[in-house]
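Lecture notes, unit on binding sites. The following record was shown on slide 14. It pairs a sequence with cytidine-5'-monophosphate.
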Amino acid sequence: MEQSVRVITIDGPAASGKGTVAERIAHELGFHYLDSGALYRLATYRALKLGTPLDDAEALERVASSMAPVFEQGRILLDGEDVTLRIRTEEVSRATSRVAAVPGVRKALFDLQRRAAKAPGLVADGRDMGTVVFPEADLKIFLTASARVRAERRALQLEARGETADREALTRDLEERDRRDRERAEAPLKPAPDAKLLDTSSLGIEEVVKKLLDWWDEAR
Ligand code: C5P
């Protein structure tokens, strides 16, 4: 990575608001944006489509290392198919936390993520951005929020897309996904020792964005 490229990492559990906040910060600063979760979702979607058993680590690594997604104007194309919304279903979310626990899959996606760091800077969101992928980042953030608040946010997202949402089931799914992400041996979900923690349970997007931009001003 070039020396002059600035990096901000935003990690945290599912539906903690990372994606929305990271995109906003990237926009405000004129930085690139990396949604690392999308890469894990793409590998998982591809594996499900190809019928790859989710317990076959070697086959999953091959699926991840041979994929060539195209990101274009907010859409994601994979093997010629527009998968932008298809990788966001609850079925894919659940399976992704299993696929993401496979070390070979994480290795296959590592370089792809590092290559996203381009001048003038990058905002990267995920689970291990500050701990594993960009340990040298200029600012590391770890966002949290209660499971109830996160499930409500996810429900509103689904309803905005015209889908129905079962809040109880969403809360259970989120907690199960977080547990798997936290307890895996490879790159578990946890704050980097030098990360700044922010609980967003009672904060709106604007307040979170403002807080992070203040931290960025202090960090520079
Ligand atoms: O961020 P998002 O909810 O889209 O991530 C989906 C899943 O991908 C997470 O539950 C996690 O298992 C995996 N993931 C990961 N490391 C990242 C980003 C996502 O393991 N950096």
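Take-home: The chain has a mean pLDDT of 95.
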